[in-house]
Amino acid sequence: MKYSQKFGLLLLLSLILAFSMAGCSNESDADSENSDEQVEIKLGYYSSGSADEKMEELIDQFEEKHPNIKVTTQNAPYSQFFQKLDTQIAGNNAPDVWLSDGVLVSKYAERGAAKDVTGWIERDLNKDEYYGLDFNKDASGKYFAVPQGIQIGALFYNKDMFDEAGVDYPDDTWTWDQLQETAAQLTIDANGKRATDDGFNSEAVNQYGMTFFNITEGWMPVLKSFGGGVLDEELKNSVIDSEENKKAMEWIVDGMQKGVLTDPSDLQSFQSPMSPFPSGTAAMRIGIYARVLAANETGINYDVTVLPKGPDGKRFAPVIANSWIVNNNSSDEKAEAAWEWVKFWVTEDEVQKEWAELGEAVPVKKSVANSDLFLNSGDNTINKQAFLDSFEFAGTLDTNAVWSEWLQKFNDNINRAFLNETSIEEALQQADKEVKKVLDDFYKE
Amino acid sequence: MPKLVDRVKPLKNRKRKKLSAEGRWGFLMVSPYLIQFVVFLSFPLAASLYFSFSKYDMLNAPKWIGVENYTTLIQDPVFHKALWNTFYFTILFVPAQTILALVLAVALNQSLKGLKFFRIAHFIPVICSWTVVLYVADAILNPRFGLANTILVKLGNNPQPWLSDEALIIPVLVAVAVWKGVGYMMIIFLAGLQNVPEDLYEAAEIEGAGVWKKFRHVTVPLISGTTFLVLVLTTITTFQSFEQIYVMTSHLGDVTSAGGPNNASMVLMLYLFQQGFSFLKMGYASAIAWVLFIILFGITMIQLKLQKKWVYYEK
């Protein structure tokens, strides 16, 4: 008799489950039936403070222009947003179009979650009019995302500190060696001695020549302009263990040992690894465009120029093109509507202008980026042209499907070299071995 | 024989009906829990067991690969490190927190004025979020401006990189975790202490027992049930500790560095999270979860077995 009760219970539970599932599918059936006239799309984006309000406004404008498309939104702070998104993709209820961090586009593209939008781009966009489209192109020439706003790296410098030390401001003729020589003159210890003086104490630095952190605003631009890097052209093999990388690493470690560049443990003293420059504790930084906001907020007297050249004259500006991705699992109708939103975003001057006013990213549309609105906006008129000039030698951070994973392995190893716990050769060899394993696990089935 | 059975049957049937009516009500009453259990617990549990034998990146359907995840796990140096760190953390944390909680509870179990204030004060860290604790900890542990190094330097020692030294990181994290968690266990001990009958102490006093002897021979045996509960709870939560390490070692915002420096603070839960959610290796992460489950199950079993030797229950 107990069995029959258990059986009954099981039946009851499966019925409840079945009904709830039926409930779900009924809902979506109803959706697609109504959609002859009205398409409802879900748009996902990660929050970034004041930008949320503007995003809502732009969505309203979009709905006005496209009365047949209704947009529902889903937003959350950065890390929650992506966690939820991955789960939703697994459950097949992800947004129809979402904003992806530029470094994560390949993660979705190579795993089949992002729709191939090559055809639509060819049809609707004149590629020459936009910055950064190619940063989302895969090796076979397909596009999987369209930039929403672009972050590109340049050299930020604190003019007051340069004036005080009596040295010339950096310009486009600088090499990395020149940068480090100048940085030494701008580094001051607790006793007021500069790194170029006798008796300078590199263990107690009060003002750093340059702050240096992680990949984008740290080692990647140096490695690349020295001719090195992490992955080959195909982005599937490691090229870590190279002479060029060794030279670049020597440049970095040398600067850290002298106390001219911040090493990973120096940064522990700060509220955030981003804060030395805006707080006036470092004379220079490699910074993406968004760093302008923090620097303006603290009111330091600064400017920007292009990043220095490597020993052979090579330059590299790191790029993160945060982009719109259309869901590969959305129905054709919803995907088309989602594309309308993407098109609206990049082609409409008004949208581009309003977004540019927030000052969070370089506008995607070249005409807007090169207008006064972008170049001369705000109270603090810095040389924003430097960011645009940098597009000529810009590149991604060797982003592929397993970017975060190889990055962690790479960082673990080179940080040990930065802290002098291992030699540069050993760090690079070990990093090479570990990164290779990550790549092979994913690409060589 | 068959005849007899036939004759009994109607009676049995009636009884059965009665019972099942009652049973139905019973099941109806527990159904919210049961449904919750099936939908949110047993189904995910079974799914994760299946995932642990497959390659699953969440974005595509899982692919069965047999025991490969487990064999990779056995050879994975980071997993070894995480396993060791988890044990190391637990071995330092569980005794430290339990003893300190007991000492605090005994001290705060007196009938003096103002004790409520101290009870509350010790409980405040429990209700703070780890992000808040991080800022408090930074005021002490900041390598340049923190209290700890300021004192060290004043005493003529070298400042220590508390959170970026591979050897220091786990003990430092344990110290902060004890500070944050001790209040909760203290409350449980306080509840246990208040159940110890006062006359037992009086009897012990008449026998000539001092403070220590009263504690050792009256308090300790009588709260052994509470101590056991505290030990089991602390061990399980320690093995699953995640948030603290995630928040305190992710280098103030750089999440990829969580578990650092150089994996010196990588624990099982953090490794699981990273593999599953940051690197989309959900199959591998599920395998880690099952290994963690087996370890926890084993330890709890051992604790249950051992309790017979030292836990005293009032009949």
TrEMBL record, chain A:
It comes from the Bacteria. Residues 1-22 form the signal peptide. Transmembrane segments: none annotated. InterPro entries: Bact_solute-bd_prot1, SBP. Keywords: Signal. The keyword Ribosomal protein does not apply. This is ABC transporter substrate-binding protein. The lineage of its organism: Bacteria, Bacillati, Bacillota, Bacilli, Bacillales.
From TrEMBL, chain B:
Residues 83-303 form the ABC transmembrane type-1 domain. The chain crosses the membrane at residues 25-53, 87-108, 120-137, 168-191, 222-242, 282-302. It holds the Pfam family BPD_transp_1. Its main location: membrane. It is found in: Cell membrane. It is a multi-pass membrane protein. The keyword Manganese does not apply. Signal peptide: none annotated. The keyword tRNA processing does not apply. InterPro entries: ABC_transporter_permease, MetI-like, MetI-like_sf. It comes from the Bacteria. Keywords: Cell membrane, Membrane, Transmembrane, Transmembrane helix, Transport. PANTHER family: ABC TRANSPORTER PERMEASE PROTEIN (PTHR30193), INNER MEMBRANE ABC TRANSPORTER PERMEASE PROTEIN YCJO (PTHR30193:SF37). Belongs to the binding-protein-dependent transport system permease family. This is Sugar ABC transporter permease. It comes from Pontibacillus salipaludis.
